[in-house]
Predict the 3D structure of the following.
Amino acid sequence: MKSGCTFASVILALCLGCAVGHAGQTRAAQRPESYTEKISGTLVTFDMVGVPAGEIEIADPAKKGAARKVKVGPFWIGRTEVTWDEYDVFVFRLDEPVGVSSGSDAIAHPSKPYGAADRGFGHKGYPVINVSFHGAESYCKWLSAKTGRKYRLPTEAEWEYACRAGRPEPTRDKLEQFAWFWQEKTQPVGKKSPNAWGIHDMLGNVAEWAVGLDGRPVVCGGSWQDTAKDCTPTRRQHQQESWQANDPQSPKSKWWLSDGEFVGFRVLREP
Amino acid sequence: MDTRQKRDGTVRAMSRREFLKTSAVSAAAVIGSGALPFGAGAWAAGSDVIRVGVIGCGGRGTGAAKDCCHSTAGVKIVALGDLFKDRLDTCLSVLQTKLGEMCEVSSERCFTGFDNYKGVVDCGVDLVILTAPPGFRPIHFKYAVEAGKHVFMEKPVAVDAPGFRSVIAAGELAAQKNLGVVAGTQRRHSAEYRETIKRIHEGAIGEIIAAQCYWNQGGLWNHGRKPEWSDMEWQIRNWLYFTWLSGDHIVEQHVHNLDVINWVMGTHPVKALGMGGRQVRTDPAYGHIFDHFAVEYEYPNGARLMSMCRQIDGCATNMSERVAGTKGTSNCANWIRGATEWKFEGDNPRPYVQEHADLIASIRSGKPLNETRQVAESCMTAIMGRMSAYTGQEITWEMAVNSKEDLMPAKLEFGPLPTPPVAVPGKTPFI
């Protein structure tokens, strides 16, 4: 599934010229300050990048051929995709002292994955894969409860806005500089050049869960499996049966996609 | 006749006329082969549909029932059996939702308790899906075959040598009765694996001299003990962690990979030298099984297989096979490198559905598949590896298949049942 770039124009309510290179100057105050979050009880940290408020025109999932202008931000978004380092803390409760399980914890934790959820692609520093929308969303809830800050999945408008970072999308010949695509497997996060706001791997490596304008779970952007033409800010996929084809159980796992080795996510934080 | 699932997931409806045509073929084949008038022909005469009973209504049993119905037109789930009523009820409600009219299970055809399998087999089904914990498989399989039922059975099919011998005998009886038997070693029904291994058998990598296979993953689920559960109930609900029920994870999971290597080699190994232990997952909630094994197997041609399997969180994962021959290597699944450079391209229909499609098509054609020996030998391969790792001794195939160790508890009833001791290499005896 792919869509064209017809509605790709980004209209920044702020000025186009005030992106990352000029941060700290005139309008820097309107861009939340980037920071590093620490998952307490562990040594795991991750970086959040401040994104200024603005407006974006994106394809309307409800009406083919139509576009919608959406106001977004300001917010923070993960500098990289969520890695196994972070997700393992959630799955295996690595933040809790050994032998102590916090019974009062109201947020469900994932079941242990059957088989190799990381596919043997790489673990430390590699993006989470095979994770369901429910898993990604639950991670955000858990992280919010843990940190006291409002983490959630981005909407597709926020995702595309952060992906474009107020710039034209990279041409095919420049794409390699920014994105992992047409690979044998996932790659460590944050190794390619970031976009103009300092955010890595929006276009490739793993496609990312977001909440669609229509409220449905949607996966944005391309992945390591895709060729360049599918590695765009407008790429959208909805979950298909084939993403769990080799889950032999019924009901199938609500936490894991047995065949979703191209699906991950990143977190967004509201002010 | 096209009985396969179409790519879009729909199945072709089969008319009564088509069905009778194929049934006639089956009946003729049975008579022609001089076999007893059970099996393929017997059910076809009286009914339009294949009536399926499920014995073991957990997640896999429920999934297999769905896969079976989706594989082929003219299949209905008509009976369910499980030791526990709560598991049966959940399965029934999922199947009613997901299968609609293909699920025709009335309350008179729901059976619970240790004898549930007898109820299912004896209530007028044509085919049974055996998906209870593996320790029960030999009992269920024997009873189903003696009653003339076709069988789909999940792996593993045995957890000890007496179980292996019983399954082999029942498989031979199934052949005499012209009954279909397909096992849940689904790689055997994967287009990718079949194409690759066909080429290996044709000599694409020369003579095989070495192999490796792996099932290294993290830990699995555990149902915390409830106060009202007896030892027996607690163990069966957590069957993964007790050797009499699962065979240990080398049998329960790693059998898939060992089966692929046996398939490639065309036979089972002649001996095993293994080691393993219970190093990290030591809580009594996890019964008495090991959390890692490494076993070297030797095949009749001298080729060695290095096999490892692990269930420890936070470690490197790998679930795959690899074979090396005199002219190249292959992952057995979709590529060959060396003298031949080849990569699988094409459709790979979901093997979990394909295995049922193949079984039912073979029954209807009057030439039923019988996979009993291949799956039983692969399970025995895993059991031989476990025996070696548990005892610390080198175990030959002859020793393994003639082992007297019967893991089944003396009495199958809810009540006290101590957890067996954890095996200690060098001290645990070979029996």
Observations:
- The two ends of chain B are 50 Å apart (CA to CA).
